[in-house]
Design goal:
Blueprint: H1 2-62
């Protein structure tokens, strides 16, 4: 009776370890998604600023 109980306990512990790892991966993926979203916003903002600066430079170059 000892060996079957040990097998059940070890199986349960293995599932617990896998569950903890799955939660950690899920949390890390959410953090990565938030960082990607933030980086995308920054890149879009920088692209808009660059576009405005290029328009301004083109206007000032065209007036001379």
């Amino acid at each position: 009776m000892f060996w079957p109980m040990l097998a059940v306990v070890l199986g349960f512990l293995g599932l617990v370890v896998l569950g903890v790892c799955a939660v950690q991966v899920f949390v890390a993926a959410r953090r990565l998604g938030a960082q990607v979203t933030d980086a995308t916003r920054r890149i879009n903002r920088a692209a808009e600023e660059l576009e405005r600066a290029a328009e301004s430079a083109a206007r000032s170059a065209g007036t001379r």
